[in-house]
TrEMBL record:
Positions annotated to bind substrate: 190-193
Group of enzyme by EC: transferase
Source species: Asaia krungthepensis NRIC 0535
Gene name linked to the record: prmC
Annotated Methyltransferase small domain residues: 106-193
Catalytic activity: L-glutaminyl-[peptide chain release factor] + S-adenosyl-L-methionine = N(5)-methyl-L-glutaminyl-[peptide chain release factor] + S-adenosyl-L-homocysteine + H(+)
Stated name of the protein: Release factor glutamine methyltransferase
Keyword S-adenosyl-L-methionine recorded: yes
Stretches assigned to the Release factor glutamine methyltransferase N-terminal domain: 10-78
Molecular-function GO term, any one: methyltransferase activity
One Pfam family hit: MTS
Lineage, uppermost ranks: Bacteria, Pseudomonadati, Pseudomonadota, Alphaproteobacteria, Acetobacterales
Function: Methylates the class 1 translation termination release factors RF1/PrfA and RF2/PrfB on the glutamine residue of the universally conserved GGQ motif.
Keywords recorded for this protein, A-Z: Methyltransferase, S-adenosyl-L-methionine, Transferase
One GO BP: methylation
Amino acid sequence: MSANPVSLKQVLDDTARALAQAGIESARMEARRLACWALGCDAAGLLTRDTIPEDVRERLISAVKRRCRREPMAMIEGETGFWSLTLGVSEATLIPRGDSEALIEALLALRPDRASVRTILDLGTGTGCLLLAALSEYPEAFGVGIDLAPEAARLALRNAARNRLGTRSVFLAGSWFTALKGQFDLILSNPPYIPAGEIAGLMPEVRDYEPSRALAGGNDGLDAYRAILTEASDYLSPSGLVIFEIGQGQERDVTRIAQEKGLKLCEARADLGGIIRALCFEREDSALSPGYE
């Protein structure tokens, strides 16, 4: 790109070409998205422009270089959407993904009464996406988010304030149930579930930029489920739910671990790609049946 002001079309063409050469799929779409971010406008606003200011062009060039190094788009933009929320992101946490919304969909199907969930625990909260989405749907609920990384807990706290849920949530740094007391109507978790041998083969946006502690689930990918399910029943109310995100093909193993700890499967929900992504469990002696309140 020349140092002189150029047309927006030329900038978009150059950006799309650079992204395509870096192996980015949907390079043209991402070029327009980056241009919108640099200009601070939406897609409709982009259509009203013919040129791009010099300072904005330099900002865009810097962002393109980052994306060509396969830095995730959400990291460049500094935020992402999840459910009905807008959340800040950082390298301290996983980037919320649409697949994880299957957990909230399953929750709403099993607990349609919005007064039925009063206390929520989110283990490995990251950005706070699951807890905050659940709180947005259950207005009488209060939630606790736990993350091993203090910087993740601080980010989740900021996201709660940003989405006006700060008075109904608290975020702590710790390991799973450490120092917790009481019982919860809902325990949510998107724990690390990638087997150790598969980490190196992940796409570079994930492998190189998202925290390995939030990805690596041990040799078989199940370490976190074992740890959580060993104690989950002690923190679950009599009619409570445990809802996990799982990796592809882990349904049988996670269900077996849960059954060994006195929990029964009451819902398995697929994501938009048709992959089972959310597993829901309740106590073996629960009086509630799936979908009943």
